[in-house]
Amino acid sequence: MARGNAIRILRQVTVATLAAAFAGGTLLGNVRVAAWEEPLWVTVYPAVAGERAATAEFVDRLTAADFEPIAAFVAREAQRYGLPLDRPIRIELGDAAAVPPAPPVGAGPVGIAWWSLRLRFWAWRQLSGRPGPAPDIRLFTVFHDPIEGVALPHSLGLEKARIGIAHVFASRRMQGSNRVVITHELLHTLGATDKYGPDNLPRYPDGYAEPARRPLYPQRYAEIMGGRIPVSAERADIPRSLRQVRIGPLTAQEINWPVADGGG
User: How far apart (Å, rounded) are the C-alpha atoms in residues 240 and 171?
Assistant: First the structure.
């Protein structure tokens, strides 16, 4: 019992020490990111989780142009809100990375905090020694075999660490929906919160792109943090591309965009 308590205390002290060290290194960066005074640099690091050779070949063929629609989407939405930046984010494709460590299942607050710190240390080790300045946001995009009916691991974005992990399919046909997932996690790193319930249905009104539309259904777009296009009170469809997605006023407010006009 005593040994278990000692290990638990040591783990808590280690978490606190590492948290303080990482906090000192990210505070100024987070302030600059939130100011939106200059474009943010986002680097996508692809990783291969699938076992098929075609999945690795798919990742090898990726270029920065495959992720440019994400930057174009953010620019389009920023213009609607009057953000004075023509290009709020710039995306580059980094070298391939390993698959990030998965979050613990059923862990308490200390376990989650420990995993978050492990993830930051893992990301630092992955990227240390690579040429060029560190990006503002790091997106680890994990590509899986495109098997129909298979559920992917949960994607996530950490605001304080400015790290996103997006699990997507290695399929050209699904590139549009992949970009929606990646953009959702990107906005998490900027402070946006989820706007859907346990049933995966968007929450009204903040999870709806057009909450004042009459009739309310079907909606024409998905709110990016709501995740889906509500077509009825009981059904919502996954958007096929970012052309079917909008950033709602609450999400804009969370990422520190001007919202006085409600986004036009």
Answer: 13
